[in-house]
Write a structure and sequence with these properties.
The complex is a heterodimer of chains A (339) and B (161).
Chain A (H helix, E strand, L loop, with lengths): L2 H8 L3 H13 L2 H10 L7 E7 L5 H14 L8 E7 L8 E3 L14 E7 L11 H10 L4 E5 L9 H5 L2 E6 L6 H5 L9 E4 L7 H15 L4 E4 L2 E4 L15 E3 L8 H17 L2 H29 L4 H10 L5 H15 L1
Parallel strand pairs in A: 1-5, 1-6, 2-4, 2-5, 6-7, 7-10
Antiparallel strand pairs in A: 8-9
Helix pairs in contact in A: 2-3, 2-5, 4-9
Chain B lengths: L9 H19 L5 E5 L8 H12 L3 E4 L6 H11 L3 E6 L4 H14 L6 E6 L5 H8 L3 E3 L5 H12 L4
Parallel strand pairs in B: 1-2, 1-3, 3-4, 4-5
Helix pairs in contact in B: 2-6, 3-4
Classes of the chains: A alpha/beta (339), B alpha/beta (161).
Chain lengths: 339, 161
């Protein structure tokens, strides 16, 4: 892959882009070289993250959102890329990636590109190279990039750093108010989607979510002891004044998806208005740089150690004759001596 | 190189570390075999496809499972987008002699001749050699041990990498 490849990816060569995605995912030297060349062309796409517990309907919802973007009445509907991340088995390193099963409505549309990705041992709901794959789609001119996370649960907050707009998908019957006030996944929502809105218990779930939102965002009117009261002041707004809306959807038949896409577009507009689009980009690139630096430094550091040194320390940890912190100190001392 | 010794412990630790490294290397390994498992045609029995998908996962491969009633066009499109090394098809309806040539043609049109095709299901004995002539790498019937499928997929993919 070289310069000519960069050009043909920019001009929409999909088979080549698919090859490049594999190379980027595998971290091959040539793949990363092309990625460097593509980087100047990135920064245009709207990155939408979709997260939530397993079985809440993330894949079906992504299918519907993409369909909606493609069916839009505008003369040039936006091109949509989808990255669907599923877990890698920590025991065998294999994975079954099943998100495409829910996305069959999108097949046959050249304006949609779906790529399944295994998490390959990374926690936090995304794979290590998800951000790089996003850059490939961005450079190739996909205007909307939907990233669906693994769906492991409350710690999947990486997506909020990657995406401009984060959807947290909930469904009835998954938990009570205590789940809703726990820290973690609900806090990262720009939009809360209450999927499976045709199921019993949907009102309770919505009430719990509203209660949670009321704690983190100021509300003017509250319902308390049987009457509506007006509150003044309240808790200051968490960020830029955007209060995450709660939207009901039924992803299996598309109910509520049009309203959801409107909310997604409104959020993008809001980010531009308050200049948060750019600050989110900055945070994202900062995190990416930091992660790359840590990874590269750690690899280089371990190369410098005498053979067996690391293993020896692990042995002493196992015997409890050394604590992990002491081990790190020994490692640092050793590497300084080596330099 | 300095050799460190901890009486009575070093051997086990080294062994343990070697195992951890093996697993890590496998898990993080750059060259994962990617397999698309698809069920073309109209029969709705996907137990076999799921068993194979699971076995390939346990063998450390990344399996993209697409579900029932896929058209050849859907399969070729998914194979292109997912950049797979292997397509595993499960066909029980007897339509294999119509479906498989069509998939092979579409792959060729996409420049994906390098993708290895494996077929499982109810395939009459006299059809298996004809399928292999067309370029299918393996044909498996009911009761085929998954270990054999895994090995043959590995053997077909490795040299190409």
């Amino acid at each position: 892959m070289g310069k000519t490849h960069v050009d043909s990816i920019l001009s929409g060569n999909l088979p080549l882009m698919a090859r490049l995605l594999t190379q980027v995912e595998n971290g091959t030297a040539e793949g990363l070289a092309v990625l460097n060349e593509l980087f100047p062309y990135t920064g245009k796409a709207h990155l939408i993250g979709v997260t939530g517990a397993p079985g809440t309907g993330k894949s079906s919802l992504v299918n519907q959102i993409a369909l909606h973007y493609r069916k839009s009445t505008q003369p040039n509907p936006k091109r949509v890329a989808i990255i669907a991340v599923d877990p890698t088995s920590p025991f065998t390193g294999g994975a079954v990636l099943g998100d495409r099963v829910r996305m069959r409505d999108l097949s046959g549309d050249p304006g949609v590109f779906i790529r399944s990705m295994a998490s390959r041992g990374s926690l936090g709901g995304l794979a290590q190279t998800t951000a790089s794959m996003v850059q490939v789609f961005d450079a190739a001119g996909f205007e909307v990039i939907l990233v669906e996370t693994v769906g492991a649960g409350q710690t999947e907050v990486d997506i909020a750093r990657l995406a401009h707009t984060t959807l947290v998908v909930e469904s009835p019957g998954l938990g009570d108010e205590i789940q809703a006030i726990k820290a973690g996944i609900l806090e990262i929502a720009d939009i809360l989607v209450l999927n499976k809105a045709d199921m019993p218990g949907v009102d309770n779930t919505e009430r719990a979510l509203k209660g949670m939102l009321g704690l983190s965002h100021p509300v003017e009117k509250i319902f308390h002891h049987g009457e509506t009261m007006v509150t003044k002041g309240g808790i200051p707004a968490a960020s830029s004044g955007w209060v995450p809306p709660i939207l009901r959807t039924i992803a299996t038949d598309g109910t509520g998806v049009a309203e959801l896409v409107v909310a997604i577009e409104q959020h993008a507009q809001h980010l531009h208005q308050v200049d948060e689009w750019r600050s989110r980009e900055k945070v994202r690139l900062e995190v990416e740089l930091d992660a790359l630096l840590t990874e590269t430094l750690a690899a280089r550091f371990r190369q410098k150690l005498p053979e067996g040194f690391f293993d020896n320390l692990v042995g002493r940890l196992v015997k409890r004759t050394l604590s992990p912190r002491e081990a790190v100190k020994l490692l640092l001392d050793e590497s300084e001596n080596a330099m | 190189m300095t050799e460190f010794h901890i009486p009575g412990c070093a051997a086990e630790v080294r062994q343990y570390n070697a195992r951890v490294n093996d697993i890590l290397e496998e898990t993080m390994s750059e060259q994962k075999i990617r397999v698309l498992v698809a069920k073309p045609g109209l029969d709705g029995h996907d137990r076999g496809a799921k068993v194979v998908a699971r076995a390939l996962r346990d063998a450390g491969m990344e399996v993209i499972y697409t579900g029932l009633r896929q058209t050849p066009e859907m399969i070729a499109e998914a194979a292109l987008q997912e950049d797979v090394d292997v397509i595993g098809l499960s066909i029980l309806s007897g339509a294999h002699m119509a479906i498989i040539p069509r998939i092979l043609d579409l792959l060729k049109a996409n420049g994906q001749e390098r993708v290895n095709i494996f077929v499982g299901g109810i395939i009459p004995d006299e059809d298996a050699p004809r399928l292999k002539e067309m370029g299918v790498k393996g044909v498996y019937g009911p009761g085929a041990p998954t270990a054999i499928i895994v090995n043959e997929i590995r053997a077909a993919v490795k040299p190409a990498k």
